[in-house]
Amino acid sequence: MTFRNRGNVLPPGTLTFSAMVSSVLKGALRNRPASIKMVARWTGAGERTVKNWFAGTCSPSGDHFRDIVRNCPEMLHAFLRAADRADCIAMASVTDARRSLQDALAILDQLDMARVGPQSGSPRSDV
Q: Measuring CA to CA, which residue among 48, 58, 51 is closest to residue 18?
């Protein structure tokens, strides 16, 4: 079976995947002096490879992209916007907010237990 070469023409105004990765990395890391090394540590990729991602000449493989997303939430948001899945961005934000609230409540519970002390199970009434 053969396939006709239809080219890789994207709709006008659409960034290529490589350009999106480059744009997000540059924006998120703001061209810090060690940004190349930081992304290389995140992904386990070589520095020359990461420089190509920053330049937009190459794009990361799936595994490397996953590792970038793990450390750079801006990349996930850009990818979901490019895939027309803004609904997933909202859900991810709700999940992050819920996790932050749970963490805050756990800290408040610990502070409350430290204030009350181990001898009674109810809060002090003089507060």
A: 58
Which of 69, 105, 62 is closest to 89 using CA atoms? 69
User: What is the Cα–Cα distance from 22 to 108, expressed in whole angstroms?
Assistant: 41
Tokens linked to 70? 């793990």
pTM (predicted TM-score): 0.63
Structure tokens given for 48:
């020359």
pLDDT tens, position by position, 11-39: 566 779 999 999 999 999 987 889 999 99
Secondary structure (DSSP) of 68-122: HHHH-HHHHHHHHHHTT-HHHHHHHHHHHHHHHHHHHHHHHHHHHHHHH-TT-SS
**What DSSP character marks residue 14?**
P
Whether the Cβ atoms of residue 93 and residue 45 lie closer than 8 Å to each other: no
Q: Residue 53's CB: how many other CB atoms inside 10 A?
A: 25
Distant-in-sequence, close-in-space partners of 43: CB < 8 Å, separation ≥ 6 = 50, 60, 63, 64, 67, 68
Number of Cβ within a 10 Å radius of residue 58: 16
